[in-house]
Amino acid sequence: MVADTGKTLRADTAKPVNLPEPLAVEEDADGLPAFVKLKRRQKITAVEDCWRIDDEWWRSEPVSRLYYAVILASGQRLVLSKNLIANSWYRQSY
Amino acid sequence: MRILCVLLPHFPINCEKMKHHDLASHPVIITAAVGSQKLVMDYSPELQGLQREMPLQQALSLHGTAELIHADIPYYVSVFNKILDALDERSPLVEGADLGDIYIGLDGLQLLYGSDDALVRAVSAAVPQIFEARLGIGENKFMSWLAAYFSIPGSCKILTRDTAAFLKDLNCDLLPVSLKSKEKLHQFGLHTLGQASALAPGPLQAQFGPEGLRIRELANGRDATPLSPRLIEETIEENTTLPSVTALLEVMLVAVEAMLSHAFTKFEPKGMGIRSVNLWTRSWMGEHWEKTIQFKEPAMNNRTALSRIKLILENSPQLGLIEQIGMKITGLGRPNGHQKSLFTSVRARDNLLEDVKQLEFRLGGPQLYRIKEVEPWSRIPERRYALIPLSR
């Protein structure tokens, strides 16, 4: 039998789920996502939905994101988010 | 998918009229208890300003002289099931969504009936006339329900094109969302579906949560709710009237045991057991209580089933003195195969945790996690769930 290691549960032992994954996205002239690079570069054929989240503005790292539900040329549906503070793109299921 | 909705307005009231023919002469409110709260289940059509699921106090403040009747849900369900059985002979895709709301999938039926009119006639003939069935055809469940709602009793309305113009001026109260959300929509000055559909999804979600997105989709005539045709399964129903009204658990258990013994004789020889039981009681005041009891493993004998039911009854306070008790056995199944252990499996969970800890010790950190809800309401997706080490 292995003795208890005596380790206590710390906040860092809990892992977040569904973190945003960085993604290469090309924008068009209006700032809307036009192409996305997954395994290969794909054209975004339609933006189905768009919504914005602004939260935790009182913290040092506030959340300000613009989400897009898009359809790719392959027919795949994807939810993209743009971090409006860092100006970077991510994919994340919502 | 084209869907035909058969709407039986005021279904519980019409069921009561079948039982008591003198009910038509005075206004009636049918009540049902949800926890400790009494809600309006249905009401006579002449009572204005009432809604289903409205608290009874609120309804009585509007119509204090209406007669109150406790809902006899087993009776309503049995009448509803008979109608569904009749409709099953017209179409294989029949869903009884709610008491009085029936959806029928139309795909492929044109080949059988030739035209919508012939199908509508066949469906209308399957529903007793007292229910004044309204029929509607639409591209999804919500649109077909609206078409049925606005059709004349005995006729069918077909809604397939220019739905936006049809929806624009309809009242938000028609949305199949919670009463609280409907009240909130009116408080925001959103009285019509046209007003709700014009809003962006963000603000609606911020105010109504996940239901906000559904409100917007429905207001635009889109409803992704799939048709769930009912499954035909063997059910066994037993019920008994107690010799005298009682609140004693022992008396109820004797009745349950007698019903179980009777039920087991029907399927025990086939080597089958009970997977699910819907237990119900009816008090002498007519109040209805019911609970569905699931068995992790099929209960193969009377004793096993009774011990689980006893536990449930002990922890579920009854609404009053019980006069009638019954059960519907809805799941019959055979036991799963098991690998027998040479040694005792007592403390199996402790042994498993010990193994997990050993794994952690060898590999230097948590290896197995479970998903735990942290802030499931959060608008930030990654805040909703977290992985917690299994050994903690």
Tell me what the structure shows.
The complex is a heterodimer of chains A (94) and B (392). With 94 residues, chain A is mainly β. Chain A has strands spanning 15-16, 21-22, 24-27, 33-37, 41-55, 63-72, 77-83, 88-91. Chain A has one domain. Chain A has a seven-stranded antiparallel sheet, with no helix packed on it. Chain B is α+β, with helices and mostly antiparallel strands. Chain B folds into four domains: 3-158, 3-Layer(aba) Sandwich (MutS, DNA mismatch repair protein, domain I), CATH 3.40.1170.60; 163-219, DNA polymerase, domain 1; 236-333, 2-Layer Sandwich (Dna Ligase, domain 1), CATH 3.30.1490; 348-389, no CATH class. In chain B, helix 10 (201-208) crosses helix 11 and helix 12 runs antiparallel to helix 13. The longest helix of chain B has 19 residues, at 249-267. Chain A binds chain B through residues 1-2, 4-5, 9, 13-20, 49-53, 55-56, 63, 92-94, and chain B through 200-202, 205, 354, 357-358, 360-361, 366, 369, 371-372, 379-389, 392. Strand 1 of chain A pairs antiparallel with strand 14 of chain B, so a sheet runs across the interface.
